[in-house]
User: Fold this.
Amino acid sequence: MTPASESRNTVPRTTVPSMPVPSMPAPPSDLAWLGEHAAARLPREVLLHAHGPTAASLEAEVARLRALAPGSPGSLTLVDLAHARATAPAQEPAQATGHVPAADLEGAPLAELADAGEESFALAATGDRIRVVAGGSRGLRYGFYAALLGLVPADGEEWTLRSPALSIRMLDHWDNMTVHPVMGQVERGYAGGSLFFEDGELREDLTRVEHYARLLAAIGINRVSLNNVNVHAHEATLLTTRRDQVARLAEVFRAQGITVLLSVSFASPVLLGGLGTSDPLDPEVQEWWRRTTADLYAQVPDFGGFVVKADSEGQPGPFAHGRDHADGANVLARALAPHGGEVFWRAFVYDHHQDWRDRTTDRARAAHDHFAPLDGRFDDNAVLQVKHGPMDFQTREPVSPVIAAMPRTRLAVELQVTQEYTGQQKHLCYLAPWWSETLRFPLGPDGAPTVADTAAGLVAVSNVGDDDFWTGHPLAQANLFALGRLAWEPGVSPDRLLEEWIGATFGPDPLVAEVLRDLLAPSWLLYESYTAPLGVGFMVRPGHHYGPDVDGYEYTPWGTYHFADRDGIGVDRTVATGTGFAGQYPEPWASRYESVSTCPDELLLFFHHVPYTHRLHSGKTVIQHIYDSRAEGCERVAELRPRWRQIADRVPAALHDRVDALLVEQERSAEEWRDQLRSYFFRASGIADENGRPIH
Ligand code: GCW
Assistant:
């Protein structure tokens, strides 16, 4: 039996060192949402009823935050029920709470918490006293961060029980260990090099990874995949000869309750094991995966599993052996199952050697064509990772029909936080409004389960690198923050997430909040307004995907066409006259998208080929919409920088300068989009802009 005094770890203000704790490495210049403003919210008295590694890491966190700001009046009590029970006398019943004072638990929903799982917590705020009770260590950590991020109900409210809506909340890194001459180190990375790797090996100094793990834990992320899904020969060895590097990263992430995963090559048995085949039905191949996976678990007992991109854009896969993707996924799932691991199998499978002359093949159909027939064939620990849209992370796409088509398969929806097609962290583009729309999309008539109801998880490609501001564009941090929060709580409004992020990152200055809101809240629609119109997608420069090139992908094998000619534009994906893609949806969507009169304007050119003179629901013709929207979008972009300058002396100077320089680039690039698209479509259609604006 532990005496009360030992089970109660108090971190009162008076014992707090005024300098950074010596064991904590120097913080990076930018602490994002865990800097001084979050520290200022931490109540002066913190009472921790917990033990083990989580208690130690929360104590270190409190000390670190105290060094940044003295904190706010009041107290924060954190109770881990598992700890409370462990310290209870043996004869007490299961609901016993050991030596935790009754006042700390008064009214707490203990029975509900016991059912809610170890990531859940309950929180109550009365006066300046915040109480958190958690069913386990992860929940305790999330409760602590909820208090820091200001996710605390108004004074006097009852206890609220908080549980994550999605149990899988994962970030995928597309990091390579070496620098690719064209792609750089991080594929589609716009924030410098990899946080993890340098010169082909794990970094010696993992300080920034420690801070990154804390930032992710604070927003509820519980899994990180460490390397690029395009697995090159060198990175493939993380599975075998470089396992120790995975183990070191796992240790850093484990300290924040985050599990690590690896992207692996489907051809590993040949590449790394020297076998003659990677056929998933070959017993030797199966044995190789079993042994290799067991060896990895011997070093990383809580390893999360594998992410696999197979038969996609040149990556090896089961098709080469005459097998399907359930055969492929299950061989890995079975190697992982005895250890509690999962395989995340990507549904991003399509023909990237398409003949542009062939109007019947439609890349948008591919994932559904390949995977829907396999529903029910995947093992329980296989998760099908489906891109949120049917194409490829464009600025606007419909929801992928695969999500509605596989009720007997565990699905994770994949989003792209890194802004490959949405301005590459040079343009402002707050993506939460779109993600929120996607997650709340009903997969059937009103009241049908939504995407968030259907998915077991949310996976997102990270936008973080070794950049001083983590994300290249400092304001792109808002996307990472919102992603984690939406995975936990998909119904929360994007505007509220913006408020939360601003408060934790920039503090309570009302002008700063107003300017950031004005810049970010409408930025996705603004970006859309001057780039590819009405859901048609692409029109970017091939390869790096930045800036306009209307025909850049038009005659390529990639399956990304707009079919603009002198008469009209768009892709006919109807069942009646097109590729039939619209028919992959359940009702009412199949009919709504099929008909030009009910298809929403913003997706018109995704589903239909229409004349330029076609009138939108907005009342404008397609051509006039293209002209006006690009011109007006540019005018609005020109207003951003003067607005940003209003807070020049109210945010850190280096951050202000970085954003200012990027706004100059956004203006230049938006003008380029405007001028190329307006000129292209005037030349194609011969129809004048009725507003007489210049065309080149
Ligand atoms: O959008 C495309 C990117 C590729 C990426 C691929 C994928 C990692 O252009 O760079 O490869 O998607 O999601 O696998």
The longest strand covers residues 72-80. The CA atoms of residues 675 and 696 lie 7 Å apart. Residues 174, 187-188, 229-230, 309, 348, 392-393, 420 surround 4-O-methyl-beta-D-glucopyranuronic acid (CB under 6 Å).
